[in-house]
UniProtKB/TrEMBL annotation, chain A:
GO terms for molecular function: 2-hydroxy-3-oxopropionate reductase activity; NAD binding; NADP binding. Residues 164-284 form the 3-hydroxyisobutyrate dehydrogenase-like NAD-binding domain. It comes from Candidatus Accumulibacter appositus. The keyword Oxidoreductase applies. The keyword NAD applies. GO terms for biological process: organic acid catabolic process. This is 2-hydroxy-3-oxopropionate reductase. Keywords: NAD, Oxidoreductase. Residues 2-161 form the 6-phosphogluconate dehydrogenase NADP-binding domain.
From TrEMBL, chain B:
Residues 2-161 form the 6-phosphogluconate dehydrogenase NADP-binding domain. Residues 164-284 form the 3-hydroxyisobutyrate dehydrogenase-like NAD-binding domain. It is an enzyme of class 1 (oxidoreductase). InterPro entries: 3-OH-isobutyrate_DH-rel_CS (IPR002204), 6-PGluconate_DH-like_C_sf (IPR008927), 6PGD_dom2 (IPR013328), 6PGDH_NADP-bd (IPR006115), HIBADH-like_NADP-bd (IPR029154), HIBADH-related (IPR015815), NAD(P)-bd_dom_sf (IPR036291). It comes from Candidatus Accumulibacter appositus. Pfam families: NAD_binding_11, NAD_binding_2. SUPFAM superfamilies: 6-phosphogluconate dehydrogenase C-terminal domain-like, NAD(P)-binding Rossmann-fold domains. GO terms for biological process: organic acid catabolic process. This is 2-hydroxy-3-oxopropionate reductase. Belongs to the HIBADH-related family.
């Protein structure tokens, strides 16, 4: 199939490569052309604008940072909508506000273009291994058209509901995951302060009821004091801004998420936005250092 | 002075009446015509749009709900900016995001209109008594132009700094009052659930370091179970969102404000949005096992 892909960061690179390996033809556009190189070498074609990607593609994937980026690429000047034909499909795999996903689907729908919101969980490793968890919002029939492609990217593909429902699931995912990273950081920080070896504590906990992916992976990074990203903490911070705004809009109290958000704010203030979210441990350590 | 007044709700109406009673010549506009009637009856003139008001005054004041409303009034169709009134001073006394105030001010300045952000504290009672606290951001020259009008509406009038500084002060004010209402409600609920007369506890605390205007005024209304607004919960929820989104942008940790904002979210979600913010006591009672 003719596929378009826009948004070639760490995640996007790996995902685009998996689509190529699945035997599809790939058209690309990137704001910074230098990120295209590895994919061009693997056989993809570069385009001058998102509109040009649209003209060549039956299905376009986007994997961008913010809702405004997706909006610009889809509906802005030289945007996808200027090139896509009716009955084509946009699959947005970015993490953006549910409201924005619904609004984009509505506006694209007016041009006869279908849309799925299909954010993912699993990080760079899972993107490379094609084992992402994919949470899909949109019409069931549209998902069936996209499913063979999504199966090249991920293992768990769940149709959560209508447009926006995928982003709601992703917000829930971030709430639980970053909350669990914070819990792991607090436990390991407490263990060290109480004179126990955090590595041993983590090992002991892994087999029991407190075991979690966050304790295993981010807890491991904390024990090794390896704070190089995985997923950059600034992206989790961005996601918390989205989900807390949504909670405000709905009038839903999220007391724990609100506190995790504040720890992420502190992390950003300390300049660790581009390191791993395991740096939440360093925020706790900093709040215990003698002030001065 | 010829003064224009836009937005005649709970706060705006008594503020405008105080300007009239001080002898200023007033032209008013409100989205709903019936809101204008009390002012017209008291001797004000009516206009058919914000631009219509701007055309005939030297100083224009707005008191509306949120940033999109201010934008509409100042920069929208038939807005203040469209009146071509270079030299006009426009003052917005609503509570909006500091960043939004700065942006609106900059865009008005392009039309030669000098802008002040001048949010208030003191509630309906202070608006009626002409005893509001007014926190002003913007140029000194514009502040001096508006000062005679401010003195008809408020007592404690402070020029805090440049554009946006008034809104920053107001956000800080809402951190203190938002958390203050919550802590007073917690203390009185704690007393009651411990089998002690909360009225006596309030009386005892008023003489010590826990004294605050909120303990005195809001505390009394809690004891009287007088939940009539005053200051509606949904407005405080909106203000806490301004605080938290600003903290997110700045990368700073506000743990207490974050917890407070979640309680206000819960008030909205449980149908208490139209009641006074002291109805947070009802929410605490429910969470402490009281029957509704």
């Amino acid at each position: 199939m003719q596929i378009g892909f826009i948004g070639l960061g760490v995640m996007g690179q790996a995902m685009a490569l998996n689509l190529l390996r699945g035997g599809h033809r790939l058209a690309l556009w990137a704001r910074r052309p230098e990120v295209l190189q590895p994919l061009l070498e693997a056989g993809a074609v570069a385009c001058a604008t998102p509109a040009a990607v649209g003209r060549r593609s039956e299905v376009v994937f986007t994997m961008l940072t913010a809702g405004a980026d997706v909006e610009r690429v889809a509906l802005g000047l030289d945007g996808l909508v200027e090139g896509l034909s009716a009955a084509s499909l946009l699959v947005d795999m970015s993490t953006i506000a549910p409201e924005m996903a619904r609004s984009l689907a509505l506006r694209l729908g007016e041009q006869g273009i279908d849309m799925l919101d299909a954010p993912v969980s699993g990080g760079g490793q899972a993107a490379a291994a094609a084992s992402l968890a994919i949470m899909v919002g949109g019409k069931a029939a549209v998902l069936e058209r996209a499913r063979p492609l999504l199966e090249l990217l991920g293992k768990t593909i769940v149709h959560v509901g209508d447009n926006g429902a995928g982003q709601v699931a992703k917000a829930c995912n971030q709430m639980i995951m970053v909350g669990a990273i914070q819990a792991a950081a607090e436990a390991l920080h407490f263990a060290a302060a109480a004179g126990a070896d955090p590595a041993k504590v983590r090992q002991a906990l892994a087999g029991g009821s407190a075991g979690s992916r966050a304790l295993e992976i981010m807890g491991g990074r904390m024990v090794d004091r390896d704070f190089a990203a995985g997923v950059e903490a600034r992206l989790h911070h961005k996601d918390y801004g989205i989900l807390m705004q949504e909670a405000h809009r709905l009038g839903v109290p999220l007391p724990v998420a609100a506190q995790v958000w504040q720890q992420l704010n502190a992390l950003m203030a300390m300049g660790w936005g581009r390191s791993d979210t395991a740096s939440l441990l360093r925020v706790l350590e900093a709040s215990q250092r003698a002030a001065g | 002075m010829k003064i224009g007044f836009i937005g005649l709700g709970i706060m705006g109406r008594p503020m405008a009446l105080n300007l009239l009673q001080a002898g200023h010549e007033l032209t008013v506009w409100a989205r709903r015509a019936e809101s204008m009637q009390p002012l017209l009856d008291a001797g004000a003139s009516g206009a058919d749009s914000p631009a219509g008001v701007a055309g005939v005054v030297d100083l224009l004041i707005s008191v509306v709900a949120d940033a999109p409303d201010v934008e509409q009034v100042m920069l929208g169709e038939q807005g203040v900016a469209s009146a071509d009134r270079a030299g006009l001073v426009a003052v917005d006394m609503s509570t909006i995001r500091p960043a939004a105030a700065r942006e609106i001010g900059a865009r008005l300045l392009e039309q030669g209109v000098d802008f002040l952000d001048a949010p208030v504290s003191g509630g309906e009672v202070g608006a009626i008594a002409g005893s509001l606290s007014i926190m002003v951001g913007g140029s000194v020259a514009a502040f001096e132009t508006a000062r005679p009008a401010f003195e008809c509406m408020g007592k404690n009038i402070v020029h805090v700094g440049d554009a946006g500084a008034g809104q920053v002060a107001k956000a800080a004010n809402q951190i203190v009052t938002g958390a203050g209402v919550l802590t007073v409600a917690e203390a009185l609920n704690f007393a009651a659930r411990s089998g002690v007369d909360p009225a006596k506890v309030r009386e005892a605390l008023l003489g010590g370091f826990a004294y605050s205007k909120i303990l005195e005024n809001h505390g009394q209304r809690m004891l009287d179970r007088n939940f009539k607004p005053g200051f509606k919960s949904w407005m405080h929820q909106k203000d806490m969102n301004i605080v938290m989104q600003s903290a997110h942008e700045l990368g700073m940790c506000l743990p207490v404000a974050a917890a407070t904002a979640q309680m206000y979210n819960a008030m909205l979600g449980s149908g208490l949005g139209e009641e006074d913010s002291i109805a947070i006591l009802k929410l605490l009672e429910r969470l402490s096992g009281a029957e509704d």
